[in-house]
Write a sequence for this structure.
């Protein structure tokens, strides 16, 4: 009986936690959001200018943070790209199970 | 402590670890005035997107995508996403990635393992980047994107929302941090995505392999899968039955083969690509020295007529080969690649007079089929397996040969049907405003906490799930739409009118019930304060 009661309490607590988590509003006020963007914009320009392109360049950015974590900047060569292929009939037709749907500097091969 | 109390404390502790607010995902624009996200060119409002300039419509799309992902994922740390429009290579829509990765941070699930910055911050509850953006993204200025938010992308256009959702997905953690060309992990450390990347041929996870084994695995098209339990269970709900190109006879080569499709001719169907394969022969002439390239009128039309012709790639365009095959009476065409690569190439080119379906196969498979003609082939459905998953139901990852840097491994396979948001290429059958298939499930496997409860707007429960196990995100759409509508309505009356029209549309399309529609509107009515919301 005691076990059942405990399980009921557990269920209620978990349900409440779940509801609170889902119901939680964004943490930032509009002003905080504007401040966040302004600060990020200032730093982003410098960050973008120094984002490593290759892994060897990235290795130079590896560091240990104050909380003991390890960090490294991601080389842009590891970023992903997304491609599309408009066909001759005007619709976007990305070829299923084909070899050219990977991003490329060319369209589908014609021959 | 008794076992029940222990279980309770563990359950509560686990829940508290996941107790975070909806993630706040904030685009941080990097374009100069008058360009990209600030392009002042006048534009007519699009469905769901009330912007009146190109730049404004682009910003609305980016913020809507941020709100969608933000509603789905939980994090106490705001996620800044650098965003700009810039010329990219032809056919490339966008690119993105995490700016930094972290390992061994507080609450890291797996030690000595890289996590994307956004995920690491969500798990640790700390601003690990110290105010830097967690993700950076670039979108092409070369495309005429569709800026509507309703998923009705016109033919010939691509939904910017789909592209942004895809790229943001990568930045959030749908990517590995491995150099597939070399088989090496970034700075020698595995990443959490690769923890679940498994090669069926080698019988090893990527984290168990040597660099050389990973290098080989990255080329093992069709045989590398993602094993996370959530992605697997979601795949079973989302993916359709396996449909494949199969050689039916002779028995010695019977089985399924990878194939590529064409941008000309009739799309391949179960009913229009069945029959006997015959090698198409043409004269050896100057500039076209082989007799199997299909570049001239066929010399064996009598044998080809009514059958499926197979020819080799090379010398002339794919559409030329198809036209010659059709003129000889072929009912279909197979083009065998003339170089080793996998998957088989998609075939470009156009000829509106071509009406027969055409596919491509690899060089090796083509040689096998040609050596065994007449072979019987067809497209068949296997209801016991999933299209784009292995026989165990695990979703396939895209591992083309040759390697596609930055793309190999970090996408679902293009073989999936229906198309998935996180395939390496995108098309107009997607609608990321309402459906993101197994994308969030994979992120959950990597450690993200997902908002699986109901969508709340104005602090009120709409009774609509933020996301369902099949990846429908109607609840997230309601949150994002309410945010957008509040920001672009001059008065509460206008906000309510637009939310009512939106509600009516959701109900009419069967996306929510009448009761849920009532809740959406009553929750909208709880909006307080001045309009428009900032």
């Amino acid at each position: 009986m005691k076990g059942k009661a405990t399980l009921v309490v557990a269920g209620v607590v978990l349900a409440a936690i779940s509801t609170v988590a889902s119901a939680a509003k964004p943490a930032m006020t509009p002003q905080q959001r504007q401040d966040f963007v302004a600060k990020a914009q200032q730093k982003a320009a410098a960050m973008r200018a120094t984002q490593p392109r290759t892994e060897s360049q990235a290795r130079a950015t590896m560091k240990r943070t104050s909380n003991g974590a390890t960090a490294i900047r991601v080389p842009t060569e590891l970023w992903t790209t997304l491609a599309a292929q408009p066909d001759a009939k005007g619709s976007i037709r990305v070829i299923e199970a084909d070899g050219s749907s990977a991003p490329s500097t060319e369209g589908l091969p014609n021959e | 402590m008794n076992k029940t109390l222990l279980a309770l404390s563990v359950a509560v502790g686990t829940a508290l670890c996941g107790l975070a607010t909806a993630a706040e995902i904030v685009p941080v624009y990097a374009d100069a005035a008058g360009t990209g996200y600030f392009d002042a060119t006048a534009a007519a409002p699009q469905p769901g997107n009330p912007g009146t300039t190109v730049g404004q419509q682009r910003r609305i799309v980016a913020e809507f995508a941020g709100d969608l992902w933000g509603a789905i994922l939980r994090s106490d740390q705001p996620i800044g996403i650098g965003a700009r429009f810039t010329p990219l290579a032809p056919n490339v829509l966008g690119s993105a990635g995490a700016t930094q990765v972290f390992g061994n941070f507080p609450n890291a699930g797996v030690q000595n393992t890289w996590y994307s910055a956004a995920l690491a911050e969500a798990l640790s509850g700390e601003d690990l980047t110290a105010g830097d953006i967690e993700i950076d993204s670039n979108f092409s200025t070369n495309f005429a994107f569709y800026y509507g938010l309703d998923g009705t992308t016109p033919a010939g256009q691509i939904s910017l929302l789909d592209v942004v959702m895809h790229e943001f997905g990568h930045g959030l953690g749908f990517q590995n941090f491995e150099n597939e060309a070399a088989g090496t992990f970034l700075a020698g450390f595995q990443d959490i995505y690769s923890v679940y990347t498994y090669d069926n041929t080698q019988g090893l996870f990527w984290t168990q392999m040597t660099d050389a084994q990973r290098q080989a695995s990255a080329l093992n098209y069709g045989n590398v899968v993602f094993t996370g339990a959530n992605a697997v269970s979601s795949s079973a709900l989302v993916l359709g039955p396996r449909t494949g190109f199969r050689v039916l006879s002779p028995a010695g080569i019977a089985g399924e083969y990878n194939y590529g499709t064409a941008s000309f001719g009739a799309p391949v169907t179960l009913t229009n690509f069945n029959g006997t394969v015959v090698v198409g022969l043409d004269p050896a002439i100057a500039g076209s020295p082989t007799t199997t390239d299909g570049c001239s009128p066929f010399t064996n039309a009598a044998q080809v007529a009514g059958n499926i012709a197979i020819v080799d790639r090379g010398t002339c365009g794919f559409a030329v080969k198809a036209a010659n095959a059709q003129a000889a009476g072929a009912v279909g065409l197979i083009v065998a690649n003339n170089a080793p690569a996998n998957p088989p190439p998609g075939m470009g080119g156009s000829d509106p007079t071509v009406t027969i379906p055409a596919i491509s196969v690899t060089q090796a498979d083509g040689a096998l089929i040609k050596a065994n003609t007449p072979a019987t082939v067809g497209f068949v459905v296997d209801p016991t397996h999933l299209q784009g998953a292995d026989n165990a139901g695990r979703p396939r990852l895209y591992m083309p040969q040759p390697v596609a840097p930055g793309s190999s491994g970090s996408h679902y396979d293009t073989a999936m049907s229906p198309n998935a948001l996180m395939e390496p290429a995108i098309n107009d059958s997607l609608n990321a405003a309402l459906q993101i298939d197994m994308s969030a499930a994979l992120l959950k496997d990597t450690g993200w906490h997902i908002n699986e409860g109901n969508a709340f707007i104005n602090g009120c429960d709409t009774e609509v799930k933020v996301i369902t196990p099949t990846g429908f995100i109607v609840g997230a759409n309601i949150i994002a739409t309410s945010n957008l509508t509040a920001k672009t309505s001059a008065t509460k009356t206008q906000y309510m009118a637009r939310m009512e029209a939106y509600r009516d549309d959701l109900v009419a399309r069967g996306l929510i019930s009448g009761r849920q529609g009532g809740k959406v509107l009553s929750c909208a009515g709880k909006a307080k304060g001045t309009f428009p919301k900032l």
